[in-house]
Design brief:
The protein is of the alpha+beta class. The protein has 4 helices and 6 strands; from the N terminus they run βββααββααβ.
Length: about 150
């Protein structure tokens, strides 16, 4: 399996500095990062490690979920995965990820709501990014749409 690479160039202090995250392997873009914007409610044109984790997790989950739906005898028609990653204070000092909420909606042929929910729970447990995030509480909100 391949290795994927990203690179960050950072200039300055935590509070006054900023950086650029480059998606090196895909060459699809370079994105601004800054700690004050990371800690603010509005992103204001910058990304953050939490948003990048959310993107990676939602994409990985969608791939694993679609495979598990098929294994259960269903056919995924449309899946929408929203991944909300929350940064908060760490009681031991600094910050940590305090929770991840996966919101899963989808249209699937051949599975009922229970089968859909089971496939989602199994995907949460088995997608490689979920496995990497085992130190973070991941909740699941699942609904099969007709």
């Amino acid at each position: 399996m391949p290795t994927r690479t990203a690179r960050t160039a950072w200039n300055g202090t935590l509070q006054e500095g900023s950086g650029q995250v480059e998606l090196t392997s895909s060459k699809i873009g370079t994105y601004e990062v800054s700690f004050p914007k990371r800690a603010a409610e509005g992103a204001n044109g910058t990304t953050s490690p939490e948003e990048l984790i959310a993107a990676a997790h939602s994409a990985c989950f969608a791939m694993q979920f679609s495979a598990l739906i098929a294994e259960a005898g269903g056919t995924p028609i449309a899946l929408e995965i929203q991944d909300d990653v929350t940064l908060g204070p760490d009681p031991d000092g600094g910050f940590k990820l305090t929770g991840i909420k996966l919101t899963v909606r989808g249209e699937v042929d051949g599975l009922d709501a229970d089968g859909f929910a089971k496939a989602a729970a199994d995907a949460k447990a088995t997608c490689p990014i979920s496995k990497a995030l085992t130190g973070v509480d991941i909740t699941l909100d699942v609904a099969l749409e007709q």
